[in-house]
Amino acid sequence: VSQFLGGLGACVEWWLNQCGAVGAVGQAQAPENAKAAPTHGEGMRNQTKWAAFDEALEATAPGCGGLLYLPQTGARQVPGAPQHGGYFGLRLDHSWADMGRAMLEGAAHELRWALEHLRAAGLALEQMWMVGGAAKSPHWPQIVADVSGLPVLLSQYTHGPALGAAILTGVGLGVFESVEKARDHFQVAAQRIEPQGAHGPVYDRQYAAYRRRAREMAP
């Protein structure tokens, strides 16, 4: 499934690196420690960058008033899609935060499209786990849940694939009797993010428009 989704997080990271600090001015007040960020290294700058973005997203609405974003890497679900993207429906009243939210929603639309391939293959989908940097966002997991219509589970472990590899290795070496017992040993806790039904109609329209735009861009 991962072949359908590569590079989406990199697009958001690229956008924040290009205009995050500039766009945050006037959109949201950065945290107090933002003033000291330049002297505390790249890690602190990244934290400040994402914190300002997360705060700015508080003022945005689902669907961003019809704004759509297709990733620079191209729509993953369209064979032969060109390796470029952009914004559609961008207006003068759209804010920097709206543009950022549209990127997060665009990634969620790509995910929803990929999930349809799984459903078409006869696989039942009940819930999804979200790990890594995106899972730290107070907004992105909810957007993914709302767009996909599936609950999103968050774990206290930030490196899900590494944890899975450790569990399987432990079972293979005989440290644990089974995958279930190994999972119980690590005590994986789940924070469950439920889809907000009120946002469903908006995202259904946006998803349909996203697919239409993606296909129009294909040769």
Plain-language structure description:
This protein is 49% helix and 8% strand. The chain is built from seven helices and five strands, in the order ααββαβαβααβα. It is globular, with a radius of gyration of 19 Å. Mean pLDDT is 84; it is low at 26-40.
List keywords for this structure.
single chain, 219 residues, mainly alpha, 3-stranded mixed β-sheet, two-stranded antiparallel ribbon, 8% strand
Secondary structure: elements and pairs:
Elements: H1 8-24, H2 41-57, E1 68-70, E2 86-88, H3 96-120, E3 128-130, H4 140-148, E4 152-155, H5 160-172, H6 179-186, E5 190-193, H7 200-217
Parallel strand pairs: 3-4
Antiparallel strand pairs: 1-2, 4-5
Helix pairs in contact: 1-2, 1-3, 3-4, 3-7
Low-confidence stretches: 26-40
**What's the rounded overall pLDDT mean?**
84
The number of distinct β-strands equals 5
Annotation field: number of helices:
7
Give the neighbour order of strands across the main sheet. 3-4-5
| Molecular shape | globular
Helix content: 40-55%
**Distance N to C terminus:** 24 Å
**Class based on secondary structure composition and strand pairing:** mainly alpha
Strand residues, percent:
5-15%
Largest sheet: 3 strands, mixed
- Rg (CA only): 19 Å
Order of helices and strands: HHEEHEHEHHEH
